[in-house]
């Protein structure tokens, strides 16, 4: 049953990642991978919030592991960073990694704090 919940969450998380990237790229352009940054930061904050706030293992499987796991993407971060390196844009590549890691950690801390504030 848990596997089905994870798969169901991922069925919504992956398209959400794809659509978010399209929308962000439309407004911010593709010079830098802003779409991946947005999904990684938002997904990290949401995942930590849900992991703290949701007590049910089933809901956690659906939302945290399935949805947020498919929404966020380390593989795309790696690929896009390597593309920046191939283009000779080393500073952008380093900034991309640093921004994704720092942004994800900060968002995770915010999600943790918000969940504790709401749940007591």
TrEMBL record:
Record family assignment: Belongs to the fluoride channel Fluc/FEX (TC 1.A.43) family.
Keyword flag Transmembrane helix: yes
Localization: Cell membrane
Keyword field contains Plastid: no
Protein name: Fluoride-specific ion channel FluC
Transmembrane segments annotated in the record for this chain: 32-52, 59-77, 97-118
Gene: crcB
InterPro entries: FluC
GO molecular function list: fluoride channel activity; metal ion binding
Function statement: Fluoride-specific ion channel. Important for reducing fluoride concentration in the cell, thus reducing its toxicity.
Membrane topology label: Multi-pass membrane protein
């Amino acid at each position: 049953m848990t596997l089905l919940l994870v798969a169901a969450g991922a069925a919504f998380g992956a398209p959400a990642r794809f659509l978010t990237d399209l929308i962000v790229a439309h407004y911010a352009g593709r010079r830098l991978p802003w779409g991946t940054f947005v999904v990684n930061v938002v997904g990290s904050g949401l995942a930590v919030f849900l992991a703290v706030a949701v007590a049910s293992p089933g809901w956690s499987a659906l939302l945290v592991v399935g949805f947020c796991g498919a929404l966020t993407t380390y593989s795309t971060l790696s690929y896009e960073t390597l593309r920046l390196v191939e283009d000779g844009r080393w500073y952008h590549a380093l900034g991309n990694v640093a921004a994704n890691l720092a942004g994800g950690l900060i968002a995770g801390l915010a999600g943790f704090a918000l969940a504790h504030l709401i749940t007591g």
